[in-house]
Each structure stands twice: as C-alpha cells, then as structure tokens.
Amino acid sequence: MALAAAPLFAQVGGRAARPKVQRPDGPVWEIIRKNCTACHGIDDYAFYSLDRDGWQKLLADKHKPDGDGLTEADRALLLDWLVSKFGPDTKPFPRTYIPPEITTFFSDPEAQRLMNRACTACHGLDRVGNVRNSADGWRVTLVDMRERGAVLSDQELEQLVEWLARVWGTNQDK
User: Fold this and answer.
1) pTM above the 0.85 mark?
2) Helices of type H across the chain
3) H-only helix segments in 39-122
4) CATH 1.10.760.10 segments of the chain
5) Which of 13, 20, 51, 52 gives the lowest tally of CB atoms within 10 Å of its CB?
6) Which residues in the chain come in under a pLDDT of 50?
7) Average pLDDT of the residues of the chain
8) Which CATH class is domain 11-86?
9) Residue of 80, 101, 78, 89 whose CA lies nearest to 157
C-alpha cells in the first residue's frame, strides 16, 4: 500500500524535519510491513489526522485500481490502528517546516532562558532532563510543541535543537 505523502525527506543541510512514529507490534505491524513499507515509511501517517472514512478514502485513492491485496479483516485492523493513532482528535505533523541553517548557538543560560519562556507555560523542565534524543528527535518534539502553542521562532527552535542535542543528545548525529 502506498500513501502518497510528502517527499521522503524534507531536509535542509541533511537535517530531517519529519515526525517519528512508533511502529506497532503484532498483526498491525505485519499488515503494514507486507503492504505499505515497500513504498513509504510509517512516519507518513503522522501528516494526517483523519476519521475512519477519511483513512478509508485515502487508502482507496492512493492504491492501484485493481486493489491493494488487503483482506477485509486486515483493512479493518489497519484502519482501527490508523484512527487510534492519527484520528480526528490528533494534530497532524506540519508539512511546511523546513529547518533554517543556524550560525549562532545558545550558551547554557540562553537555552535555559528560552526554555523557561517557551516551555514552562505547559510543563516543567524536569521532563527534558529525563530524555535523550538525537537532533532529529528534538526537532520533532519542538515542532510539535510549537504546534501546541510554544512561542518559538524558526531560528530559536533550531538553536534549541542544536543545544538540546549537544547537552541531552545521543551522539547519533555525529
């Protein structure tokens, strides 16, 4: 199955600006693995926020006219999972964010000040200290937080991504 979504990698300077979707286990993963991942990754699902009819239409519109090989039981299981993870009550990952190149970097106090301004309106900073993430992972989180109301310019977002990856990173980007 192929969901025709955004290009596989929306990047600037090799830095991805895509969501990360936790893959399901069990039968749903087998359905996705057999029918979907040959053409696209599961991260593409996060660009949508659809009800069951919307997902059904998207699947029907994006697949070969002669069918996609899914049994009715497999289709029902897949649709249940898609609606539970990417249903109408979820917020789709924005397709428009392209990270700018940054040339100035935050010091520890600058990053702390920005996080105190942009993050603590909704949650404490203790959530950050318990997480290790790559730059891409931090970018996904910060774009999501901005979509939920955190006030961050693109420049600030990227400076914070760089700082978080440096201070609370996994060294995956090196």
Assistant:
1) no
2) 26-35, 52-61, 72-86, 108-118, 126-129, 135-147, 154-168
3) 52-61, 72-86, 108-118
4) 11-86
5) 13
6) 1-16, 66, 172-174
7) 80
8) mainly alpha
9) 101
